[in-house]
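Please describe what follows:
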Amino acid sequence: MCIDLHTHSIYSDGISTPAELIEMAVSNGLQALALTDHDTVEGVGEIQQLGRQFDITIMTGVEISTTLRQYTLHILGYGIDPTDPALHQWLQPLQAGREKRNKAILGKLQGLGIEITAEEIRKISHCGQTGRPHIARLLVEKGVVESFDAAFRQFLGRNQPAWESRFSYSAAETIDMIHQFGGLAVLAHPGQLDPEMRVQPLLIKELTLRGLDGLELYYPTHTRKTQKKLKALAVENNLIVTGGSDFHGTPRPAHRLAGKAQTFCPPYSIINAILARQSGRKR
C-alpha cells in the first residue's frame, strides 16, 4: 500500500486543487495523503473532508522554510491542528514575508527590463500563497526563460539578479511551534542539502537535540545510497522516517504523485510510525 505525505496545491505553489489531488490519489491507488503547502493550512480542511468521502487516510500537514546557520531547511509538520487560531497567527509573518519579497523581486525584474506585473503574477497563483515558483512559471509563459529551472538559475535563485531573502523562523523555533500545535517535525528532502551526505550527520544531530522527530527518507531524488545513509542516521538519532513525492504538478515533472503503478511508493507503515510517535509525545 502506497502513501504520499508531501504534496502541494493551489493554496501554495502547486497547480492542483485538493479535489484534483484526491482524484489523482484514488487513481494511483494511494491509501494515505498529506497536503503540505508552504506556510499555509488553508486547504487542509477541504482535503480532510474529501479524504473521508473516498476512504483515504489524510495526515494534516504544512511545510515551513527555516534557517540553521547558513543553511535553509524545510521542515514538514505532521498531525498539526489546522483549526488552531494560534497556528494561523504564527504563520502570518511568514505569509507577510512572502508578499514583501514578491514585491521586491517584481521590482528587480522590472529593473532588468522584463515586462511583468503584479496582476499577471496574481493570475498565475489564483489563490493562497504566492511565491517564486509562480513568478518562474510566468517567466516561462512570457518566453523570458526556457524552463522553470532556468528561471531560478538565471533570475530567482540565491545570488541571482532578482534574488531576495524573506523572513523565516529558525529551525528550533519551527520545531518547537509544530510541537505546540500537536504535530511532529520532519526534515524534508534531507538528501538535497548535500548530495555527498557530508553535512547531514552533524545537522541532523543538532536538529534532533532541538526536538526533530523524523527524516523524509523516501523522496524521488534520493538515491539508494542516500536512502541507506539517511536510514542509518534515523536509527542513530531515534527518528522516524517518512516519504513523499513533493508533487506540484507539471512545473516539476520529476516529482510525480506516488502510487502503486509508479516507481515511487512509500509504504503505509509510515503512518503507523507517525501515529505511534505522536501518541508517545502526548503522553
User: Anything to note?
Assistant: The radius of gyration is 18 Å.
